[in-house]
Amino acid sequence: MIARRAVLAGLGSLALSALVAAPGALAQSYPTRPVQLIVPWAAGGGSDTVARIIAAGLEKELGQPVNVVNRTGGNGMTGHSAIATATPDGYTLGLATSEIASYKVLGLGDITPESFDLISRVTTIPAGITVKADGPYKTAQDVLDALKKAKKDELSASGTGTGGAWHLAVAGLNKALGLPADHVKYVPSQGGAPALNELAAGGLSFLAVSPIEAKALAEGGRVKVLAVMDTKRLSSFPDVPTLKEATGLDWTFVNWFGLVLPKGVPADIRAKLIEACAKAHARPEVQDALKARGITPVWETPEEFKEFAMNFSKMATELLTDLGLAKQ
Question: What ranges do the domains of the chain cover?
Fold first, then answer.
């Protein structure tokens, strides 16, 4: 009987040891199958392009396929929810966009930056003041002067849906000039492309959109980017000044994409995945592919991303409240 008890005790100790060692063993073997990278927006868009560039680099670091999965719908809520609620096993990560700072405020859902384990922003894309090439505005200062002289709703802008990133850029520009956030009539659109076509046709006063989106029409002589809302010029638009250089106005607005995980990924697997993501982002071919498209690569620590997201959310909430769009 004593011998039998000793054997059972020994088996129990072995089982306990196996349980304790299991997480480390899992991390050593991870990943053993393909990883999915969820994008909350349609294929062919800016976030999808960034995701596919990073996925190609991440495959080389992980030694497994990284499949980009587009989960669209609900103004990005569907995909962001899919990321937040995915099994936290390290086999699902997502490319979150700045809309996560606005969903709850707009009453569209409960998703916030706190719904995720934030890894790092991977790119930044500033807004650019863009006008019709043969229109009345030749400089960014011309646009600001017109804004200050105009009555409410006399001038119009667009670039995204109501409450979207480029709407916030316009609202912040208004406030920086001492005007109400909703001074400009904002015409919602399905994105930068239709807004740019409307601008080129003379249907809008100006846009605050990504200069990258405007590049084709700018090169075709139909629109002109007058200034970028960032602290430095874009490498793809070296002759376009920052807003502060052009006008002295110290207002910046930079949209962003970031890698995130569902909360609860085991610490050792999380650490291995974050290291792989950092190395993938730093690969020369990834950096070159992003820069070739006029996208500024960014990498930071999870703590830095968390602090940034909190500040961005605060700014977005204030602007949405000033616009009368906040639901809670």
Answer: 32-125+255-322, 128-252
